CS domain-containing protein (Neobodo designis), 191 residues
Amino acid sequence: QFLYFIGKEITTMALPTPIQWAQRPEFVLITIAATDAKDVNVKVLENTLSFSCTSGDKKFASETPLFAEVVPEESSHVVRDRCVELKLAKKDKSAEYWPRLTKDKVKNPHITIDWNRWKDEDELDGKEDLGDFGGMPGGMGGPGGMGGMDMQQMLAQMGGMGGAGGVPDFGQGGADADSDDEDEEVPPPLE
């Protein structure tokens, strides 16, 4: 936090906003870490995201030129206890994933990828519903946290192994295994 003297007033300069982002084909998810954010001001334009808030005694502000156009009317934000989450609707939903959040091809140390919420194009199954941003950040979703799968489906997918019973053999031997122990070399006993 920087303090500047202007006349007899002390002015506080805003800090850059720490941004984490992820995306889906239709939208961009942004998380701004700001505990107990007050005076939150989010302005989404077609090519720009403007944000400001106070968190404790710190003031954050940023203006980010976006990589591509978004639809401000379909975009939204939610203020949570520890962060502010934004969901920006992409204008061109059929375009490829954005290679970066900003229009400029410059590394910004305040913008990072949110790997907990990132989904590659080949990972999408079409069933994802973020609703009120879907249990962000990045839970497993669905009933019981198993991506919408019930216990029977999970056990069937695991090959029926429920607990310790029914452990498959994996070729480790057992009563039915062929015994070629004579050909195996046995290590000498430890001294």
